[in-house]
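for the recovery benchmark. tokens below, seq after
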């Protein structure tokens, strides 16, 4: 009887898939009327329609994911379901020995030495992987090294040459139970709850690398009682989850944290020409997500803080207890961390490493520019400010980002002590 029910269910999914495919093909025919209708060209158009912008094809993706799960398969559309039900990318599971051997430890060591030569402290933070250290969550033991092998080699090589290393894997991903508790089910990233738990550890490690202690004002910020936890139920679908749909995966809850203490800060996103000022919530929380949830029922956790994963962001906090500038060379795991750190340090500048920079020398050049306070140069022809390292640009601000003075007209002079050294308020 059970086999009969499974067969009927599979046939029903196949029928629905066929209907969805017919709808997609029909839309191709209607949108491309009057163009070359030869068989090869039509086949290419249909293929492009089916495989392009999968995140927009919710019904097709969802039905396909449900059909694959009904067949008992673990892999769907380059996404794998681990033994605890969480999703991960299949290519992250099957790294080659060459990829492991060519891990970026050498580049990181070079960058750390450049920082040391300039008298700048450097801390390497190893974020946890979405697999436990013992690899109990991997459904296939095919001999391919896991992300933990790469992390182990990087941390070992860095520690061997004296680089300060904070390895968070034993705290957040040592066992399958820890991975299940600390990672998003439909994504390979950790939850904001886990990032918040790591926030005090990272802050104390940073202060230690800077030769500073943790005073009472910092301890008060790091205390969980100084923050309010908020939550939205069953509203998030990570990047892997969007490739397989809600019948292969389930929607995640989203939580986030806002400080109870008074804050006055700013957040600048040059690539979007955005500059937000005010409290932590006004500067960093994207309010439109809450109305988006009501309309679409799905929210991307990436967007809770600052609105996404941008190449360059600048946080400034006049009330921060530690007057120091932090350059955070990051990947997407640090999206919530940058928001938390901005409550402790007066300047936090996250730089998206992988997408924006090919060499660590480029990041070092940016670090030098940030240290001098000149990340942007005024371009008269474009009437904008542009970074010569990463190519980001932003509109000319109407106020000085440091002193808040109103800009009048377009007077450009050298003005040390300001973030844009080309800008000075008109007297």
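predicted aa per position
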């Amino acid at each position: 009887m059970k086999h009969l029910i499974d067969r009927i269910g599979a046939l029903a999914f196949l029928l629905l898939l066929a209907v969805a495919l017919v709808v997609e093909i029909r839309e191709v025919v209607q949108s491309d009327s009057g163009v070359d209708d030869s068989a090869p060209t039509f086949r290419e158009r249909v293929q492009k329609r089916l495989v392009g912008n999968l995140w927009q094809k919710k019904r097709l993706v969802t039905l396909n994911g449900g059909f694959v799960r009904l067949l008992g398969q673990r892999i769907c559309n380059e996404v794998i379901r681990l033994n605890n039900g969480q999703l991960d990318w299949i290519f992250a599971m099957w790294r080659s020995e060459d990829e492991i051997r060519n891990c970026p430890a050498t580049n990181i060591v070079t960058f750390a030495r450049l920082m040391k030569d300039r008298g700048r402290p450097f801390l390497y933070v190893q974020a946890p992987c979405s697999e436990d250290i013992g690899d109990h969550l991997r459904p296939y033991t095919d001999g391919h090294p896991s992300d933990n092998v790469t992390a182990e080699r990087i941390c070992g090589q860095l520690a061997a040459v004296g680089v300060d290393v904070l390895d968070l894997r034993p705290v957040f991903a040592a066992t399958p139970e820890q991975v299940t508790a600390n990672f998003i089910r439909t994504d390979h990233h950790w939850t904001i709850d886990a990032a918040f738990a790591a926030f005090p550890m990272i802050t104390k490690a940073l202060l230690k690398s800077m030769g500073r202690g943790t005073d009472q004002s910092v301890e008060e910020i790091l205390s969980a009682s100084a923050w309010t936890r908020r939550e939205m139920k069953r509203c998030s679908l990570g990047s892997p989850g969007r490739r397989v749909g809600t019948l292969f995966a389930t929607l995640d809850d989203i939580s986030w944290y806002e400080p109870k203490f008074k804050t006055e800060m700013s957040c600048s996103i040059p690539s979007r020409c955005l500059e937000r000022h005010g409290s932590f919530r006004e500067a960093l929380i994207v309010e439109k997500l809450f109305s988006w949830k009501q309309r679409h029922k799905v929210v991307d956790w990436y967007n809770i803080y600052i609105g996404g994963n941008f190449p360059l962001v600048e946080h400034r906090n006049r009330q921060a207890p530690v007057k120091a500038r932090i350059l955070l060379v990051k990947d997407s795991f640090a999206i919530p961390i940058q928001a938390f750190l901005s409550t402790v340090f007066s300047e936090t500048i996250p730089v998206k490493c992988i997408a924006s920079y090919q060499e660590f020398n480029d990041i070092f050049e940016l670090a030098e520019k940030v240290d001098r306070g000149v990340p942007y140069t005024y371009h008269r022809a474009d009437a904008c400010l542009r970074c010569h390292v990463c190519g980001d640009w932003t509109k000319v601000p109407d106020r000085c980002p440091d002193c808040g003075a109103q800009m009048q007209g377009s007077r450009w002079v050298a003005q040390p002590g300001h973030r844009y050294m080309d800008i000075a308020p008109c007297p």
